[in-house]
Write the structure tokens for this entry.
Amino acid sequence: MKSRFSFRAGVFVTLNSGGSLRGCIGFVAPRKRLYGALVEAAVAAATRDPRFLPVQSGQLGRIKFEVTVLSEPQKMAVSNPNQYLSGIRIGMDGLLIRRDSSSGLLLPQVPAEYGWSPQEFLEHACEKAGLPRYSWRDESTEVLRFGGTVFREG
């Protein structure tokens, strides 16, 4: 089984409890083999997501795990920022926003779950990076997209 997961890939593990987010941590870059990255991200999502207290053993029965295996992020090449709007495929593309030392990532399933338009997706990704909503229009902001294969627990 280990050999089926021995390729390098970015991966995020999302924990949900009762339909609400309970933790989400992962790695954009394919810095580790999938099996190692998956274990590390799962433990971190349960114990080190700064938005939540660590998951306790008594809570595990209520936690649903979701794994997203990422493709390599690619910079979107546009001559005009408005071209991002037609280049983003909701439900298929994730976004990584970078400017200076700030970055923010949203997985491909997020805008579909919330019913966002491409513009709303860009705005929320900018906010996740700690940037103003319309920073995606600034030429100093990098917009990268990536795909993700999602595996959900029953």
